[in-house]
Design a protein that fits this description.
The chain is α+β, with helices and mostly antiparallel strands and 712 residues long. Helices cover 27% and strands 27% of the residues.
């Protein structure tokens, strides 16, 4: 069997863990102290019969002695260390960092996947692979897991925290009630592979201490990194109603001569009193550190395979990366998701089954929405990320592993990015499926100066036609080096006749290795992002490092990008053909098509609306209508109204209303193209009919039956 850690350092740590001196070991195995010292320093090695005596002295087996891939069980046992209350009486009633984010698996997916992208090992050119596993435990399986995490030792602390009348206590109480009343516990595990892992010392600067020991420490120096606040890791604990996360890391660089199965657990609770003693809040599951006073503080430990399996933390390979296990995972946002738990279902699976299936679907959607670009590769270029989701119950498959496909999640945008990566873009859109590319100048400010310009970065703008499978259209999404969507907004003030499109803005390193000032653009835009990394704007860091007006450079770039988009999607003007046009519309060839009878079952439905206020104060509206089989016989009229809290909604007149795809507008009524499944219309309201200022109002768009057709 292949040996792990060198014998000398391994033996020295076992003696420390067992609280045994070199002299005591020498006496136990009947050798001189000098011999033990020579083993530890690597100047000599014990004979096989001596190794057997060392194993007995350390209360371990020969396999552990020879492989040295784990610590012996002698001496200090794995357990929980709770931080004592502050001597000055101070109290923290929860981890403030956890309140920066919602208990939402969509937020969790965004933050954890971003962190995995930041920790991707780039030397091999391979993507980082991230897998989310929802695992519901019940009955005996749940009982065994509680035993593995030493639940009996934890419960008094949970009970004390739940009795406190504050937010964290109420969340904990709900988690305990759900587990005991329904005999169930949901685990959510996040595994990444081809990532750095939790490297470094337990306490000194490094990835391990930044994640496990500290707050507001991101430990990321690369300018292209998505995270910069050190807050994203808090989403792990925010998603747990029990405030408990366990970790198993395979390291990309050895620590203590080891790389596999470095385990630690962290519990975040509010201040509490248990057994007449005050406890500050956090606690750690680990092995007592003999170097700490009284061996009181607990640190990470090198676990064996049996322990890893009992904690549901077994990794599938020795590839570097980390597995985070969120204990008692919940998703507040999924409670509002009224989508059926399964399509074409086979009966009611039950409320619990329904909740984990909803969480599964929301994870898949969030990954596809935020990381489609990172999951997109070219003909000769691998993607940066692969992601998948699976759902289990007591080890059995509920929903099979589902790999997120960017071409399914974002078909038009994926096509656009592939064209850029493959070098197949065009200057103007002339045919279906083409991708137009343009450069957008981005003037970068100098540090600490309002007027100085460091240089001009060239961002890449991609535009392509939208597809019916797109959830939304006519939007500009922007990103930088790690290709996570940062900004997603409608392109404003489009002509009503514009065909549906999607636009992508690549900045920093995402614009390509040849883009000038790519690293400087990365650093500037990173400083312009809030903790959620979901927009660019004025931040305190941007003001301190650059200037109070530096954010205007970003506004200028976005304005220039929107203007370029409108130029690329503008329809060329065509001259009217002489004669025959009007007559051609009146003539038909062949038998008259039978018109389907309109019924309530085949009535078209308005399924998507995008609206924005123009500079003139008008509402610019783009609507998508789903047309069921036979629904093209209907004639429907879009109606715009002000959204008011009470009373009748005032109706707004259309200054302009046109059909874009699958329909035409005749006398304010949509007439659908026979056989069309989707129709798209555009309209601009008449500001003269607005009874209140547009900026202070909301808009409602309804679809009514027109020209004598049955009303909805």
């Amino acid at each position: 069997m292949e040996a792990g850690e060198d014998f000398g350092p391994w033996l020295a740590r076992q003696l420390k863990l067992a609280d045994m001196t070199q002299t005591e070991l020498a006496q136990a195995v009947d050798v001189t102290r000098a011999a033990v010292s020579a083993w530890i320093t690597g100047r000599a090695a014990p004979r096989s019969e001596t190794i057997e005596r060392i194993a007995r002295a350390l209360n371990t087996d020969l396999a552990t002695m020879h492989t040295r891939t784990t610590d012996t069980q002698a001496g200090l046992p794995v357990g929980w260390y709770h931080r004592p209350g502050h001597v000055d009486g101070g109290r923290e009633l929860g981890n403030a960092a956890a309140f920066a984010f919602d208990a939402d698996v969509s937020v969790l997916a965004r933050e954890t996947c971003q962190n995995s992208l930041d920790e991707r090992l780039t030397s091999n050119g391979q993507p980082v692979r991230v897998r989310y596993t929802l695992h519901e435990l019940t009955g005996e399986t749940l009982a065994r897991f509680r035993e593995a995490i030493q639940w009996d030792d934890l419960f008094p602390h949970y009970e004390a925290a739940a009795d406190q009348g504050q937010k964290v206590g109420r969340v904990i109480n709900a988690g305990l009630r759900d587990m005991y009343e329904h005999d169930r516990l949901v685990l959510l595990r996040v595994d990444d592979y081809n990532a750095a892992g939790l490297t470094g010392d337990d306490y000194a600067d490094g990835r391990f201490a930044a994640v496990v020991r500290r707050q507001l420490d991101s430990h990321k120096s690369a300018s292209s990194a998505g995270g910069s606040y050190g807050l994203g890791k808090a989403t792990l604990w925010a998603t747990s109603r029990l405030g408990l996360v366990l970790m198993n890391s395979t390291l990309s660089e050895p620590h203590e001569g080891r790389t596999e199965r470095r385990l630690i657990g962290r519990l975040d609770l509010p201040w509490r009193e248990v057994h007449d003693k005050a406890w500050a809040g956090p606690a750690w599951l680990g092995r007592p550190d003999p170097d700490s006073p009284g061996a009181a503080v607990h640190r990470s430990w090198w676990a064996d395979e049996e322990t890893v399996e009992s904690l549901h933390l077994k990794r599938e390979s020795g590839e570097p990366g980390t597995s985070f296990l969120i204990v008692g995972a919940h998703d507040v946002a999924s409670l509002a998701d009224d989508t059926p738990a399964s399509e074409g279902g086979e009966g009611d699976e039950g409320e619990e089954d329904d909740s984990i299936q909803r969480m599964h679907r929301r994870l898949v959607r969030a990954l596809g929405k935020n990381f489609w670009a990172a999951m997109t590769g070219g003909d000769d270029r691998l993607p940066l990320l692969e992601a998948s989701v699976r759902t289990l119950r007591n080890g059995d498959v509920v929903l099979a592993e589902e790999r997120v496909d960017p071409a399914v999640a974002q078909p038009s945008r994926t096509r656009a990015l592939k064209a850029f990566l493959n070098g197949t873009t065009v200057e103007r859109l002339a045919e279906a499926g083409q991708v137009a590319m343009a450069r957008v100048p981005f003037k970068l400010p100098g540090h600490g100066s309002k007027h100085a310009t460091l240089g001009e970065h060239q961002a890449v703008l991609l535009v392509t036609e939208a597809e019916d499978a797109d959830d939304e259209w006519n939007r500009l999404v922007a990103m930088r080096g790690n290709r996570m969507t940062v900004r997603d907004a409608v392109v404003p003030e489009l002509p009503a006749s514009t065909n549906p499109f999607q636009a992508v803005l690549l900045t920093g390193r995402a614009a390509g290795s040849a883009a000038p000032y790519a690293d400087e653009a990365e650093a500037f835009l990173r400083a312009a992002e809030p903790p959620e990394h979901n927009k660019w704007g004025q931040t305190e860091e941007l003001t301190l490092v650059y200037s109070s007006s530096a954010h205007r450079r970003i506004s200028t770039m976005i304005r220039d990008a929107n203007r370029t988009v409108k130029e690329l999607v503008a329809r060329p003007k065509t001259e009217r053909k002489a004669g025959g046009t009007n007559l051609g519309k009146k003539l038909t060839v062949g038998a008259k098509r039978a018109k389907a009878r309109p019924t309530a079952g085949n009535q078209p439905k308005l399924q998507n609306v995008v609206a924005e206020v123009s500079a003139t104060g008008a509402w610019q509206v783009t609507g998508e209508v789903k047309i069921p089989s036979g629904g093209d016989a209907w004639q429907m009229a879009p109606v715009a109204k002000f959204d008011v809290r009470s009373g009748a909604r005032p109706v707004l007149a259309w200054a302009e209303l046109v059909g874009v795809n699958g329909c035409e507008v005749v006398d304010g009524v949509l007439r659908f193209t026979p056989g069309a499944g989707i129709a798209i219309f555009r309209g601009v309201t008449d500001p003269a009919t607005h009874t209140v200022r547009t900026s202070l109002s909301g808009l409602v768009v309804e679809l009514r039956a027109g020209e004598g057709e049955p009303r909805s």
